[in-house]
Amino acid sequence: MKKIRCAIYTRKSSEEGLEQEFNSLDAQREACEAYIASQKHEGWVLQKEAYDDGGLSGGSLERPALQRLLDHLEAGRIDQIVVYKIDRLTRSLTDFSKIVDILDAANASFVSVTQSFNTATSMGRLTLNMLLSFAQFEREVTAERIRDKIAASKRKGLWMGGNVPIGYEPDGRTLKINKEEAEVVSTIYDLYEQHGSIRAVREEAQRLGLRTRRRHSTSGNIIGGGLFDRGHIYYVLTNPVFAGRIRHKKTVYDGLHDAIVDPDRWDQIQVKLKARAKRSRLSSSSKQKSLLCGKLFDETGDRLTPSHTKTRLTPSHTKTRKGVRLRYYISNRLVTLRRDAHPDAWRLPALALETAVAEAVRSMLKNKELISNVVSECAAEDIVPLQGALTKLTNEADSRTLLDLIDRIDIAPGNMRFGLDGGLLAKHLGISRAIIDADALTQNHPFRLKKRGVETKLILTDAPGNLDETLIRNVANAHAWFEQLKKGKSFSDLAEANSTSARRIQQVIELAFLAPDIVRDILDGKQPVSLTAKWFSRHSLPSDWSEQRQLLATL
Predict the structure, then answer these.
(1) Distance (Å, rounded) from C-alpha 87 to C-alpha 145?
(2) Contact predicate 58/92, CB 8 Å
(3) Helical H runs in 239-349?
(4) Of 269, 270, 271, nearest to 194 (Cα)?
(5) Residues 378 and 517 in one domain
(6) Range of 484's domain?
(7) pLDDT (tens digit, 9 = 90+) per residue, 505-522?
(8) Which residues, 6 or more positions from 111, have their beta carbon under 8 angstroms from its beta carbon?
């Protein structure tokens, strides 16, 4: 008789009661063990290893014990999974279909000891899908009920948790004032009324040594405790909690806690903030905006922030004394410290970066396999309409629309990792965000930076259009002309045949002696940015290939 190796999987959504000597996980395991023992005559054998997930939701597959179980299943160590109820395994139809695929690939199955059905038949699978549908429905109803409860509690002015703002301490379902921190909050409001500018408040707050609240994360790390930045100050000035109120989405209710700032005073400051923001928008409407603001991060996790400088025009080009405004994206640590304090910090030309990224996004959208890779559960008849919508978006989108699709860019030396916004792409395609595979919307793009005088060029090495067609044509002509020279033709003969000068033939024919790897880079568009047909017309290359490589490495 063939042995059927059975593994028991148990799960409990909350941690409540897990500290007891006999808890819900133990009860599930005991029932499963009894069922396996009753099937001993069928060759069922219990595996000793326990697969228990305590305090974890069934709405996701990211559970340590479940992942270990699936790994062992794929490795051929398990023939059957035994669960107390099917919703212990998963509450999601999508996740269940993934588990079924893994089971089928491993030639394995699973059993629910309290729900009798046979998944080998179509009726059994229908029954199972119905059970999972109700389990998912129950989870979604529970989530709605929790959201409604939070909304109702906030309408009553209750504090419903989260990071407690500086100046307060949690006190059950309300807040109590921390007098020492409340003085810091009051000082920030005083400074804004005095100076009327967040930038001026930041400078004065840093001069006074005001610091944000120190918090201890769940991992034990200390967060905060630094000097106030513009974001911190704006948060303090606009948070209605300090006026004794509670915000729920876009609605503000009177809270049960005491106010640090008089509500009328807080309302007046909001009017000033909005008026100043409106003036700022009007004054900057004619300026170029940094379209990747808030989306760029370097390899240290530091956000890149927009910056600019001005360069003077030469007298022959200057009609005003204002010069040219050059935009950059710089690592945030350069905002307050000099570059020599952070030599690894980034300073990227904004226009070059935005142009390169927009073209890279357009190239991603032109990929004919994008729809099938990104859209899960897509019927064959739906692919053509979706492909048409994607083609229309690609052809009609301007740079702003393409850059809006960017969710995040992580920059490391030589590489950019792009991630598109699945929700926004789904909106353009007219489909649900739930069927978008976010992982398929992420790509790596190698890049190079090349500085020429005050100008910095950014080249995505795998971006289209990086081929120098003139240079490639000259290389091809050089080899063709060299072959004709070997057959006895002169430079004058070649010049007459190609309607050019003998001097031109002599210049171009040097390209026939380029090292093979340099020729390959030119054909692939991977040559240095400065290595152009014009460069070759002004410079002579050494005949030795090693010397050629050394020379081109300096470009």
Answers:
(1) 20
(2) yes
(3) 263-284
(4) 269
(5) no
(6) 469-553
(7) 888 888 888 888 888 888
(8) 35, 80, 81, 82, 83
Q: What is the pLDDT of residues 469-505, one digit of tens each?
A: 788 888 888 888 888 888 888 888 888 888 888 888 8
Residue 290 forms part of a structural domain: no
Pick the last residue of a domain from 460, 492, 516: 460
Same domain assignment for residues 227 and 277: yes
Residue 451 is predicted with a pLDDT of 57
Degrees to nearest 5, angle at CA 393 with 387 and 436: 60
Residue 38 token pair: 């009753």
Rounded percentage of the chain residues whose pLDDT exceeds 90 = 17
Is residue 157 included in any domain, yes or no? no
User: Which tokens in the block code for residue 306?
Assistant: 């927009």
Are 12 and 25 contacting, i.e. CB atoms less than 8 angstroms apart? yes
CA gyration radius, the chain: 33
pLDDT given at position 51: 93
pLDDT digit string, tens, across residues 324-364? 667 888 888 777 665 556 667 788 888 888 888 888 888 88
pLDDT band at 254 (very low <50, low <70, confident <90, very high): very high
Classify residue 43: in a domain, yes or no: yes
User: Residue 228 belongs to a domain with what CATH number?
Assistant: 3.90.1750.20
Q: What is the CATH number of the domain that holds 58?
A: 3.40.50.1390
Cα distance between residue 21 and residue 418, in whole Å: 49
Q: How many domains does the chain have?
A: 4
Q: Does 317 have pLDDT greater than 50?
A: no
Angstrom distance (rounded) from CA 547 to CA 515: 10
For residue 436, what is the DSSP state?
B
Same domain as 364, residue 254: no
For 507-543, letters b (16+ CB in 10 Å) and e give bbbbbbebbeebbebbeebbbbbebebeebeeeebee
